[in-house]
Amino acid sequence: MQQLLLQLAPPPAPTLDNYVPGRNGAALQALRDIARGAGAERFVYLWGEPGSGRTHLLRGLARAASGRKGLYSCATLENGADENTMLAIDDVQNLSAGDQVKLFDLYNRMRTTRGALAAGGDAAPAQLALREDLRSRLAWGLAFQLHPLSDEEKAAALRAHARARSLDLPEDVIAYLLRHARRDMASLIGILDALDRYSLEHKRPVTLPLVRGALESMKDKPA
Question: Mind listing the pLDDT tens digit for each residue in 155-203?
């Protein structure tokens, strides 16, 4: 059989709309409210283990800024952030001492303006190795522990994505992808889209033998 080489398209940019929430629906809704300027709370803190979608949500919030400047940064406070920014800052546990002072001051200024802050870290606010005054500020707003998707939730998301593309996706294919492909949703969706393109181009249904060959070809493809 002809060697199958699937060209994976770059994953779509993370947005609040393409985040699969699973048990994290409340966190997603809080960020949507901030992006729309709805609700009383403008300060959110997120934490969770790798794969829970913290970075996706923070990047998505920065992209969702409506009528104001949205900014995402990781482990540093960007010079462009001011009290009117919708700021999403990731990995706050790695902030330098100087940036901790700047973030504390910025948080206080934001309380009197229309700015908003969503921060993310690897632990709950009280457990962060940061200045005590900054830890207390991060705990003042809403705080959400994020949970990775279970296999059942990932399978449901793949089924929904396949239905949206009018793709007949057998259950054994879903199970195989969850066992053998990269387990983050962006990679799983990318693989599914590539399989859909291949099946349309070659007029072959997406079956388990096709998927096995596809994944093996991707592994063998030179970098």
Answer: 999 999 999 999 999 999 999 999 988 888 888 888 888 888 888 887 8
Whether residue 173 contacts residue 207, with contact meaning beta carbons closer than 8 Å, is answered with yes
Instruction: Based on the fold, state whether residues 191 and 138 are members of the same structural domain.
Output: no
In a domain, 46, yes or no: yes
Instruction: Give pLDDT, residue 217.
Output: 65
Q: How far apart are CA 148 and CA 128, in angstroms?
A: 21
SS (H, E, C) 106-175: HHHHHCCCCCEEEEEECCCHHHCCCCHHHHHHHHHCEEEEECCCCHHHHHHHHHHHHHHCCCCCCHHHHH
Q: What does the DSSP 8-state code read for residue 4?
A: P
Taking the C-alpha atoms of residue 94 and residue 106, their distance in angstroms, rounded to an integer, is 17
Quote the Cα angle for 18-23-27, to 5°: 65
Question: Cα-atom radius of gyration of the chain, to the nearest Å?
Answer: 20
The type of residue at 158 is L
Where does a domain end: 90, 113, 146? 146
- Give this prediction's pTM: 0.86
Which amino acid would we find at residue 56?
H
> Same domain for 110 and 85?
yes
Give the integer Cα–Cα distance in Å for 113 and 109: 7
Residue 4 has pLDDT above 80, yes or no: no
Confidence of residue 218 (pLDDT cuts 50, 70, 90): low
